[in-house]
């Protein structure tokens, strides 16, 4: 029997009396774990609504709800399974059903009583439920394209450059900082609006707050230097002695910063006061390109006649070269600021402190004008609702929610943003240790690759180390991988251990790789094959290899499914033709943009033609479409039909009318003449009826009349 190496941790994570933060890598069965915990909690609460389970997508929420309901249905209608995991889930579901029966929940008939929802829907629930208590009031529907409103609000703010005396000085500073490029400034402001829930609550405090930023910079510098100090401790004495030697033997005027280290007896201070000396010290070890030096010379303070010291320095460099991840730490120090913010930087911060709240106000005006909002507005409204006022410890709204909620579960916690974690902290701010209420956070820091909705993976690390609000969660690490066989898991372990940083770093969002243990045994065949291609024909040869591999798999085992993962759409340029040549059917998601499909391009030509009779290219493209079907010879005849008389700028539609009534019609092909006799009455009728209906209905009607539906059926 295959052993689940983290079985004890999984049992512990279901304890309904304790709060946990679970690190659950891909394939570790985290959805099943959350399902079991929800079932277990259902057996302890008085109402199912006391349990709130949050995730980040509707699909994930629907899957979670389906799993819980399916487990309850199985426990109600089927005997206890023999499989250990399924039996455990069945037992939890049985206890939940017993509680359901005792308290008349009717969960099987009313599964919607399970509060399993997305973070956005929960924020919206708070914002709407308590809209009268917040300044933002009732919220409209979220916009499908909020970026359009971000651009409009940014443009509106920049247009006040010459009309608003109070804003002009601040806009001038901002524009100067962006190179007086209005388009770039508008784009940057638009991007900021998309993540305003991160900065709007704190923006009012940055004006003239020089000491705060100095403290933040000093803390970041000190944190990085202390980490490097620990790495260099085995050779610290040797490094200091060689630095002193190099400083006293460097050629005069060649390396003034190095000569400043003459007489050094200890490592520089860990902070802004010592960062310049640290950077000089580390430049002795690395080149301008950031690699460990391969040799030292007289310009670096090691004359050719000082062979002993040169040898010692080369030994030190060899030691540095052997230390994993040391180079990245050194380069990180070299890129840290060597001084606090200057006057010009403070001016920019002061300008932003004045402009960004006004920018947010412009966006509110824009949204109200269109009766829309965005998810940031929903999050801010929810955050305002649960945040206490100056004379409150816990907000009144939080207390009211507090009576309803006893257990909160958050899936994909690595995708949370700072404002969402703050919302969570406010929700649990009234909780006390051992009061029976629990917080359960599940995620995988290694999967936080895309900055989903301004997510910050450093928050996951921070929550493992520090309380969320008043709740300290016990960290649990799951290591068993149920998805892949041992060969694949071992290969991934070996490949990615070196690709990830060795140590977690909250400020940089650096995450070390967590080794996984395979539940499935190793198969007889090789789990991973690597095939590299180089040269001018690399892409086409790679595509042929992929197609041949797919053919071979199909022949050996037709029931097998095959997935092809690519870096980007451009990577498919050669692969798709190779699959077509091999007569392989394939299905792709979001690979070919809808706007590049020929039927869509034909519809665009029709729309442009209807909007503007002077758009000759659109009209000619319309006549060339499959549902009109004219050939190039006939298009040339139509285009030149006015050459027998002076060209007066006639539109194509007018030329078509004149052509059929003139001797030029004889120059058309037989097919062209028949096609135009069908097409021209439809187009003339449409032109006469234009603007009597909306453009969408008009385009669809003409497309149907011209036979467009038959060309795509």
Descriptive notes:
This protein has five domains: 19-119 and 405-417 and 438-490, 3-Layer(aba) Sandwich (Rossmann fold), CATH 3.40.50.300; 146-194 and 343-373, no CATH class; 211-334, no CATH class; 538-592, no CATH class; 595-712, Orthogonal Bundle (PCRA, domain 4). Helix 21 (486-497) links the parallel strand 9 (480-485) and strand 10 (517-520). It has 713 residues and is mainly alpha-helical. A six-stranded parallel sheet has the order 3-2-6-7-1-8, with helices on both faces. The protein contains 30 helices and ten strands. It has helices at 7-13, 30-42, 58-77, 84-103, 119-129, 146-158, 168-177, 182-193, 196-199, 210-232, 236-249, 256-259, 275-283, 307-322, 326-334, 343-370, 375-386, 396-404, 418-427, 458-465, 486-497, 538-556, 575-581, 598-611, 616-624, 632-639, 652-660, 670-688, 695-705, 708-712, and strands spanning 20-23, 51-55, 115-118, 141-142, 372-373, 407-410, 438-443, 474-477, 480-485, 517-520. It starts with 6 loop residues before the first helix and ends with a helix.
């Amino acid at each position: 029997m295959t052993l689940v190496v983290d079985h004890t941790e999984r049992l512990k994570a279901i304890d309904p009396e304790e709060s946990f933060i679970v690190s659950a890598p891909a394939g570790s069965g985290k959805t099943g774990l959350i399902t079991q915990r929800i079932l277990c909690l259902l057996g302890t609460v008085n109402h199912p609504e006391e349990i709130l389970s949050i995730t980040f997508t509707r699909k994930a929420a629907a899957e979670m709800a389906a799993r819980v309901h399916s487990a309850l249905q199985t426990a109600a209608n089927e005997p206890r399974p023999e499989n250990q995991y399924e039996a455990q889930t069945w037992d939890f579901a049985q206890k939940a059903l017993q509680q359901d029966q005792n308290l008349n929940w009717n969960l099987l008939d009313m599964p919607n009583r399970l509060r399993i929802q997305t973070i956005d829907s929960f924020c919206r629930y708070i914002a709407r439920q308590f809209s009268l208590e917040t300044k933002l009031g009732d919220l409209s529907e979220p916009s499908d394209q909020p970026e359009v409103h971000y651009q409009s609000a940014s443009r509106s703010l920049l247009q006040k450059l010459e009309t608003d005396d109070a804003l002009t000085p601040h806009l001038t500073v901002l524009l100067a900082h962006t190179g007086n490029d209005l388009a770039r400034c508008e784009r940057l402001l638009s991007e900021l609006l998309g993540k305003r829930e991160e900065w709007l609550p704190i923006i009012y405090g940055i004006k003239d707050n020089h000491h705060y930023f100095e403290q933040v910079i000093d803390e970041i510098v000190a944190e990085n230097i202390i980490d490097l100090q620990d790495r260099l401790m085995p050779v610290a004495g040797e490094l200091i002695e060689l630095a002193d030697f190099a400083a006293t033997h460097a050629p005069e005027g060649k390396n003034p910063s190095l000569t400043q280290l003459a007489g050094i007896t200890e490592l520089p201070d860990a902070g802004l006061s010592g960062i310049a000396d640290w950077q000089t010290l580390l430049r002795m070890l690395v080149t301008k390109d950031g690699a460990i030096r391969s040799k030292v010379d007289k310009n670096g303070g090691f004359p050719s006649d000082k062979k002993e010291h040169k040898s010692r320095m080369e030994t030190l460099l060899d030691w540095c070269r052997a230390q994993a991840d040391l180079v990245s730490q050194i380069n990180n120090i070299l890129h840290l600021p060597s001084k606090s913010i200057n006057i010009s930087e403070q001016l920019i911060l002061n300008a932003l402190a004045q402009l960004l709240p006004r920018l947010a106000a412009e966006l509110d005006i824009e949204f109200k004008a269109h009766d829309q909002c965005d998810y940031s507005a929903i999050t801010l409204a929810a955050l305002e609702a649960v945040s206490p006022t100056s004379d409150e410890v816990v907000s009144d709204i939080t207390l009211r929610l507090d009576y309803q909620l006893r257990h909160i579960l958050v899936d994909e916690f690595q995708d949370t943003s700072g404002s969402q974690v703050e919302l969570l902290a406010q929700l649990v701010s009234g909780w006390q240790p051992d009061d029976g209420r629990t917080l359960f956070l599940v995620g995988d820091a290694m999967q936080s690759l895309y900055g989903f909705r301004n997510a910050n993976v450093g928050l996951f690390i921070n929550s493992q180390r520090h309380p969320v609000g008043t709740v300290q969660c016990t960290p649990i690490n799951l290591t068993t991988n149920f998805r892949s066989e041992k060969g694949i898991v071992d290969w991934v372990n070996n490949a990615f251990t070196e690709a990830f940083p060795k140590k977690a770093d909250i400020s940089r969002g650096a995450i070390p790789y967590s080794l996984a243990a395979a539940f499935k045994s190793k198969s007889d065949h090789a789990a991973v094959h690597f095939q590299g291609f180089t040269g001018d024909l690399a892409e086409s040869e790679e595509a042929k290899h992929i197609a041949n591999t797919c053919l071979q798999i199909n022949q050996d085992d037709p029931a097998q499914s095959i997935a092809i993962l690519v870096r980007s759409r451009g990577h498919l340029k050669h692969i798709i033709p190779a699959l077509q040549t091999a007569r392989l059917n394939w299905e792709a998601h979001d690979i070919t943009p809808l706007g590049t499909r020929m039927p869509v391009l034909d519809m665009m030509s029709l729309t442009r033609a209807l909007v503007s009779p002077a758009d000759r290219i659109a009209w000619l493209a319309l006549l060339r479409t499959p549902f009109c079907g004219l050939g190039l010879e006939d298009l040339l005849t139509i285009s030149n039909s006015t050459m027998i008389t002076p060209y007066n700028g006639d539109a194509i539609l007018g030329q078509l009318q004149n052509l059929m009534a003139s001797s030029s019609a004889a120059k058309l092909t037989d097919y062209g003449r028949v096609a135009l006799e069908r097409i021209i009455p439809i187009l003339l009728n449409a032109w006469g009826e234009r603007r009597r209906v909306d453009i969408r209905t008009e385009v669809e009607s003409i497309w149907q009349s011209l036979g467009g539906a038959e060309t795509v059926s």
